């Protein structure tokens, strides 16, 4: 059974508070970071999915839960 979560987008500072991981460490965990020119590059080691809204980066609640679970499972 899938849990229905509210559509919430979190700032990286909020994700940092919830996980206890620094913002710079979170940036290393992002799967689809954008370069300064706007190109999306894939990070094969990344575990955190993000949404780009303009120049800002947000994390969906569902993706945050999956990321926290991946941290717990190693």
Descriptive notes:
This protein has 74 residues and is an alpha+beta fold. It has one domain (9-73). Helix content is 38%, strand content 23%. The protein has helices at residues 12-19, 23-29, 61-73, and strands at 9-11, 32-34, 40-42, 51-53, 56-60. The strands form two sheets. A three-stranded antiparallel beta sheet has the order 1-5-4. A hairpin with a 2-residue loop joins β4 and β5 (56-60). The radius of gyration is 12 Å and the shape is globular. The mean pLDDT is 86.
Features:
globular; 23% strand; three-stranded antiparallel sheet; alpha+beta; 74 residues; 38% helix; 3 helices
Fold blueprint:
Elements: E1 9-11, H1 12-19, H2 23-29, E2 32-34, E3 40-42, E4 51-53, E5 56-60, H3 61-73
Antiparallel strand pairs: 1-5, 2-3, 4-5
Gap between N and C termini: 24 Å
Rg, Å, rounded: 12 Å
Quote the beta fraction: 15-25%
* Helix run count: 3
Order of helices and strands: EHHEEEEH
* Side-by-side strand order of the widest sheet: 1-5-4
How many β strands by DSSP? Answer: 5
Biggest sheet: strands, sense, closure? 3 strands, antiparallel
The coarse overall form would be globular
Brief account:
This protein is α+β, with helices and mostly antiparallel strands and 74 residues long. It has three helices and five strands. The strands form two sheets. A three-stranded antiparallel sheet has the order 1-5-4. A two-stranded antiparallel sheet has the order 2-3.
């Amino acid at each position: 059974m899938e849990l229905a979560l509210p559509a919430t987008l979190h700032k990286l500072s909020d994700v940092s508070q919830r996980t206890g991981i620094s913002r710079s460490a979170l940036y290393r965990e992002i799967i689809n970071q954008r370069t300064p020119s706007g190109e999306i590059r894939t990070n094969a080691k990344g575990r955190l999915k993000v949404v780009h809204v303009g120049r800002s980066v947000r994390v969906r609640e569902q993706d945050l839960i999956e990321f926290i679970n991946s941290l717990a499972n190693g």
